[in-house]
């Protein structure tokens, strides 16, 4: 009603009401020029609107407020508020997923959207994604978060959806010569401490200071530091397995039906997995920027940043497997005569470190000639030590494999797409003495990445205030050196006698026995990691080391990627019209070192293999803006961009796995992957209402070739280690024939509503429609599938994104409520079997925040995140009727102080 009333007021009346409200609101103060100084969320909203209006490309943004805070407590949460931006969690469902990590722009997977700081790419602490994880970057660094949606020739073209650019603070941007602010928040996550260890307090604290100094105050310095401590606990279930294979299909007579295709028969749970996570994340970061502006023509800056993230996670697991026939299957129930149950833990601390140093220079030579230069180096490391301990009800000695027994067979019911099992012998399942050692594993994963970046741009008459014809000419080089190494040790009892001598779970368990979701009556048996390893060390002679040459050699790779680019861009600006058009040539050279797996019987030596490849593209772009008057403008653009493969996808590494049912699974890289290419079409209407007011409508379409996705398909009979396997599944990244996405973005911002002057709103809605084509295997075609199958969306592309934020200011109090909803998104696609496609279900989050000014410069801030405790849910199957993954997320309560003294 308020939105309708506000929109129905004529613009002149609305703006007059705004001006009157600005003059009478108690928190507004006039500066020496008579301008209105706005504070709080209203200040961040106005700054973001100003950035959109002054940008030379199509972008949306979220900005810090006058106290140096984002409207949310971290970068990822804040980026959700940007029109057309959604956020995703981790890519590994066997790890904690209670926190968003990366952003998608207009439905394009984070793999193909660049993350930069002041336009500079960062080294990646990950072999799956390029660039930094947003959740690692400190909020204290940020002046503004930009989602750049239409890139010009000056930008890196690895931006199919766009580019997330973090604009860092500048000492010359502050109102006054000095700036100092401290924000300190204590929090409570209502899931933390619910298992073995007490969670303790959540902490977020940061401090930022800047000043100008020297003769004529030509020098500036900005320094910031931030610390976070984030504990959590989560009880999750994964009945569908990571690739959806935990659900299978059986005929009424109990025989497993064949994949691929939709399959026939009734759905049956064959791999039922419960997880309990204890997590503690700590983050520490620091930034320092030195600036020199000796005159109006010259700017130099030196920036250094350090970003540290430690994620210490303990994952407890209860896994129940089935084998053989499933007699008397119905659509919602059935039973297995034999099964197996495992109890275990994985301790998997991960440490990521990223360093960045860059030097930027700008000089105006006069007569419209301006030179911009950037030189940067960033380095990232990833260190993981995964310790895995597993006990099994039916372990086989001498190998990490299990048998089955009647005691652990089960009957099942399917309730709301979830399996609920009744084990044949619940007493045995709950007894520590029923389990013996299956394996002890010690796995180290190391990644080291370095990115060097240099860019030079020479502009003539191309500034925002210049008129007439102008020109930008530039070149850039990005060199990325990334190496991944895995060291894998696995120990199993050598004989059945050794298994018996080593003992059961008795004596190495915590006293807690929390309930599982999927096996009621058979609880978690929580392994004490320290006690278990002490027992192992004391009885080391009972174990043998298994052959892990495949894991130690096949996964290792080294990528050296060099991208050289040159561009030219013409500019024409008039008072009410401007156009920029250019072309960029982007040339990529790649050297990949991997180890070739031996496939001949008896062969053991892995041979190093070096592969050289490369590709080059001409990438044109054009963008025009027309001022329509009364604050209205129209923008239209067309551009061509690319999406380079992940570093891990480049590596043509191959691993083989043989299942207990005789199935051979082949996981391999694809040396023939091409980067995907997109033609992008944009049209945007913007109406700036004054102050922070904005109405914006944008339509876009992307026509994509060589879409990259990871597909599992049935392969031909394969000879491996002297045995020919008839049932083979191959998982590999592939190029689809074609993909497309189109969408509509609508946003409305008004920081003062005429009827209620203290009330402001920010609302946006994005509607997305995408799909890609993928080839079906020969076996799939033979089963009746078409040769090409069209997906229901791009990977990680929701069908809609909605945001609504309302805030109210009265005297020293500011209240804010924010609602974010992300629609259904395809998470992964099985090439041959649509029932194994995985879908992230719609998720909504409701957050509230309150600020109270206690005295000038001191605010009390409270916030509740995820007020309704919305979980993450992944589904699969016909009409998405089956749960693949369920991950609950609790509420987090924050209370803190913000201090900004007047200097």
Q: Overview of this structure, please?
A:
The structure is a single chain. It contains 10 helices and 51 strands. It is mainly beta and 903 residues long. The chain has a 25-stranded antiparallel sheet that branches. Strands 3-8-9-6-7 form a 5-stranded mixed sheet. The protein has a 4-stranded mixed sheet with strand order 32-33-39-36. The longest helix is centred in the first third of the chain and has 15 residues, at 40-54. The radius of gyration is 29 Å and the shape is globular. Residues 1-35 have low confidence and may be disordered.
SSE class: mainly beta
Largest sheet: 25 strands, antiparallel
Which stretches of 5+ consecutive residues score pLDDT under 50? 1-35
Mean pLDDT across the residues is 87
Protein name: TonB-dependent receptor
Main location: membrane
Family: Belongs to the TonB-dependent receptor family.
Domain TonB-dependent receptor plug: 53-162
